[in-house]
Amino acid sequence: MIIKGGIVYDPANGIFGEEMDICIENGRIAEDAGGEVIDARGLLVMPGGVDAHSHIAGPKLNTGRIMRPDDSRMGTEPRTGVCRPSTGYTVPNCYAIGYRYARLGYTTAFEAATPIIEARHTHEELEEIPIVDKGALTLFGSNWTVMECVRENDMEKLAAYVAWGLRAARGYGVKIVNPGGGEAWGFGSNVKSIHDPVPHFDVTPAQIIRALAEVNERLRLPHSIHLHFNNLGRPGNYTTAIETLELLKDIKPSRMRQVVHVAHMQFSAYGGTGWKDFESKASVIADYFNQTDHATMDLGQIIFGPATTMTADAPLEYANARIGHQKWSNHDIELEESSGVVPWVYMRKMPVNAVQWAIGLELALLTKDPWKVVMTTDHPNGGPFVNYPEIIALLMSREKREEEMKTLHEVVRSRSTLPSIEREIDWSEIVIMTRAAPARILGLEDKGHLGIGADADISIYNIRPDEIDPSKDHAKVKAGMSRAKYTIKGGAVVVRDGEIVAAPQGRTYWVDAAVPERDMDRMLSSLKEKFERYYSIRMSNYMVQDAYLSNPFVVRAGVQPLKEVI
Amino acid sequence: MRLQIEDVLCTFCGCLCDDIRVEVDGGRIEKVRGACRLGSSKIMGHSRIKSPMIRVNGELREASYEEAYRKAAEILVSAKHPLLYGWASTTCEALKKGILLAEEIGGVVDTTATVCHGPSIIGIEEKGLVGSTLGQIKNRADLIVFWGCNPSEAHPRHTLRYSSNASGRFIPEGRKDRKVLVIDVRETRTARNADRFLRIQPGTDYEMISALRMIIGGKAESLPEDVAGVSRKELVEIAEMMRSAKFGAIFFGLGLTHSRGRYKNVDNALSLVSELNSHTKFVIMAMRGHYNVTGAGQVLAWSSGYPMAVDYARGAPYYNPGETSCCDLLSRRDVDAAMIIASDPASNLPRGCVEALAEMPVIQIDPFENPTTFFADVVIPSAIAGIEAEGTAYRMDGLSLRLRKLVDTEYPSDVEILQAILDNVRRLRDDN
Amino acid sequence: MRTITIKLPQYHGVPVEAERISPDVLSGLSIKEISEIEVWQGNRRLRLSDIFLISGDPDPDRPENTRIVLEGDLSKVKRIGESMSAGVVEIIGDAGMHAGNSMRGGTLEIKGDAGDWLGREMRGGRIIVEGNAGNYAGAGYRGERCGMRGGEIIIKGNAGAFLGEHLCGGTIEVMGDAGDFPGCANQGGTIRIHGHAHLPGAEMVKGSITAGSARVLPSFAYEDIVELGGLTYKKYVGDLVENGKGELYVASGQIGK
Ligand code: SF4
Ligand SMILES: [Zn+2]
């Protein structure tokens, strides 16, 4: 296949809007090729979108669906010759997730939080999501074995457990959510700072984070630790964010990437002492990112309208349910985590929501290096991912931001710096924030760019970058980005003129990390005891079986060998 | 050769015990260890349907699988509103195929939840569910409440593995470290082993829960002296028992969901638990009956957005229990054919529904003969999931586990049967 | 006024979904076009005339000048008058489920009984039922926080369970008895039940419910005897489990306080 005459953006390879052809052979970008010709003359061409933080599969998704038939009835589409039926807006069914990502031009999406013991369920749902490649991050932050290793300061054992846990979950990376808090919530309490000891375990969140970060590098995992801060969602939490990032400054990354990826930064960039004097601290956070190089973030931008909040930060969901007088689901997971799900509505005239909206945009606009920023809504916490084109338009147009601000509560002007920000993101930066950066941050070498040998995941939009001015034509930008002219996944056309034309099964990425056998044996013998005494299922029934990954893609990693093989 | 298989899953009740040992010899199950009486008899097996059958002139006659598949497909394709019912005692993989079939033929998929914890699900739609895995309860709960359920009879190993009699990290002494409260309309065996038993009048659960919510909310003095036959004093003591627990867990059963008040009883109980969390830690869980009724709800939810009673007649899922649920469809004669899989509606549904079923074409897929067989028009025997076929099941707390294949069989699995029917449906469609 | 008559000859079989039978859709169409509108019978897409006999004034008119008369036993025909905003729909016989759901204006008259979810999520207009209504009259959809928000439903017979569940506005009047839990989780609106009510107003926070007699929840506080329209009522406030300020008036409470 050859894509002819497109205006190509491939910033990872130094291509910033050049007219060129792209050849595809055997699902990869090639030097040359024959076969089908796609006429993309003058159209915007870029790598397929990569979502590095989204909630798309697993128990909390189904919890959301089951408690929200009111949401499921939105966005209903009957089956077609190619597609199975779609339902839902904030909690779409599995099929809708795949089709809607593909229609946006996205070809990869990672689920951001899975407890090991419930990973089988996550994979069952991932298997049902069509088209996109996917993976799931594994939760380690309130895990008994992790905390015990940290307390014993036994990093070899911890590395063995993390490697085993990733294998058991068929997981892709280390996710840490409100570390320690998930355990404390087991008796209804929480940790209040990173130095607040976890009840019964005698370790602090700071120790857990630091140890997992060290082990993550010891295992040379493709992705860094992926961290949801303590105190997330609470006024004044920006200090916790910076304090936590400072903890990790001196850790050396084992690969060409960050040491920590911060999940949905927006929810942790809050000033004020309460909801009354709530304000944005995005500029302080952005300054920190501008001055350091060890961290990256995704936005967690909010979108006005309905959302469904779902997180392993169970105490936060309890607070949400109380504040919003909403339905509340909670799910504590033995020895590993806790979690919650609460429906939400973000309202324009609500002062806190207006400021939250500004914070996401401020973070993207004030952080100078786009490689440090991934565009997300923390779907569906900040709102559903189908709204990404809205965010793109906002980032590219100050005029649109001004128009929007007129419809919001006026505090958006006094409690954020957004009104004074002139920067308008260009196409290259958009491609970085939605493709190149998330792929690099996740360590997906064949994604997020169009170099020879890369996966032939490509999106083509009905947008003529040489003819439109995104600053003025933001409505066209939004409309164009909402329905890809073509989405090509692994060399196959899956979307044509905004409609799904094929729905192949994507891959599931997971990381198999090797550790010395003696560490593994030592770890397993103490783990066995946990199964005998505390888990409610048998160890032999715990691990996700191969049957649950029909199209696996295994990334190898492991403890650094003594001599690097070059 | 005698083979000992460890950590086998029991495919009977929602406890989904995964620590059973099975001895297999010459392709037959010889011994089951570690299961309760109910589980053992399920695993040991009983009278199987020997061959596919098709009803001709009022009598079931043996037929080939191919003939049965074709006949089943004909029934489904000619129906204007077929019902695909059961699913709680088979694998998730079977239901996945079933949903695909329902999409293709424009049918309704409903599970046996509709006659057990359907009301609980509707309650959850109102309030959400504050829950946990069973291991969390095992390790932490110092108060166990059984409300309208009787695990001693229906979930025999529940108390030992997960609840009142289990020991765990923060409950090292097991039963000694826990209090057990039973609330029911009669003194069950579970009630006799409790620390406290509150007997209530039938149909007054809702009022009891409202009263408890009042007390927990600090409004005891606004209550009448007597609430539906229970004194305020006693209710205050019960509420105090709940509030003073470090970790409380309520398990509820059909006594709550099928007495007067139905889903509102559950709805109210969910609020009670939610509010208890302002004072201490509390969770609540439905005592699910069939081993994979939870999984059936999960598969339907991720496929359609809804956990039961999904109508695909118009191509997109439509959900409205009370309208699209099995009993309502049958009693109103709103469906005109039925496929029953791994279930026995003839024994479990109200009489009016069974009569309706008897009048319409019925396809049965099941390893075992049961009263539904007597009026089925096509009978397709299948392999027993978890013994002769592998697949996935979800325990009552939502944990998924993999069922193993223990012995070989000649029978096709439910997945294979449904695929064959689907193939026949497509062929019939192409012919037209 | 333009009259369109739609007759249903004897009907047995799976339910028909006919959400397009509404003045908003039919008023502007010719009789031939009306005959061709889509209805569903289970999984079969049909034309209206495949099941119904259609006659009436030929010339299109505005919805507010349109009267649709349905004759026959329509208890298996669902969603008649869905989202209608003006005009009249008259059902000479029983109506199936979801009649007048999401209605915004106009009048729906049902001479017989109405099925479940009558006037579900209604926002305006008027529904009059000569016979009984099923469950969930004036209620919402599963999981939604609001049922009916405006308009009026009058049921001359009895109502089923969950009458006006999640009512947020509007008025419902029942001449006979109501089933279990009328007005549960109400956030506004008015329900008047002339007969008996079982546990009215559970979890209500606002609005008012009047009942001829009732079993009252223990979480309602008795306030006083009040006079309404020449009759005396016991006034309760609740539901206190939700710190509710809903008003419940009972002519003769069975559980007194
Ligand atoms: S308790 Fe249930 S799952 Fe466990 S052995 Fe008995 S029947 Fe089987
Ligand atoms: Zn997230």
Features:
heterotrimer; B: alpha/beta; Dimethylsulfoxide Reductase, domain 2; 3 domains; nine-stranded mixed β-sheet; five-stranded parallel β-sheet; 17 helices; 36% helix; C: 257 residues; mainly beta; 13-stranded mixed β-sheet; 3 helices; 5% helix; elongated; disordered C terminus; binds iron/sulfur cluster
Q: How many discrete structural domains of chain B? A: 3
Mean pLDDT of chain A: 97
What general outline of chain A do the C-alpha atoms trace? globular
Spatial separation of the terminal alpha carbons of chain A:
35 Å
Largest interface: A-B, 64 and 62 residues
Quaternary organization: heterotrimer
Q: How would you describe this protein?
A:
The complex is a heterotrimer of chains A (566), B (432) and C (257). With 566 residues, chain A is α/β, with parallel strands linked by helices. Helices cover 33% and strands 22% of the residues of chain A. In chain A, helix 5 (144-151) packs across helix 8 and helix 13 packs across helix 14 (398-406). The model of chain A is unreliable at 562-566 (pLDDT under 50). Chain B is α/β, with parallel strands linked by helices and 432 residues long. Chain B folds into 3 domains: 2-42, no CATH class; 50-116 and 291-431, Rossmann fold; 118-286, Dimethylsulfoxide Reductase, domain 2. In chain B, helix 2 crosses helix 17 (414-431), helix 3 packs across helix 13 and helix 4 (118-127) packs across helix 12 (263-276). The radius of gyration of chain B is 23 Å and the shape is globular. Chain C has 3 helices and 17 strands. Chain C has helices spanning 23-26, 31-35, 48-51, and strands at residues 2-7, 16-17, 38-41, 44-47, 53-56, 66-71, 77-78, 88-92, 107-110, 126-129, 152-155, 171-174, 187-198, 206-215, 221-228, 231-238, 246-253. Chain C is elongated. Mean pLDDT of chain C is 95; it is low at 253-257. Classes of the chains: A alpha/beta (566), B alpha/beta (432), C mainly beta (257). The interface between A and B is large, with 64 and 62 residues. The complex binds iron/sulfur cluster and zinc ion (ZN).
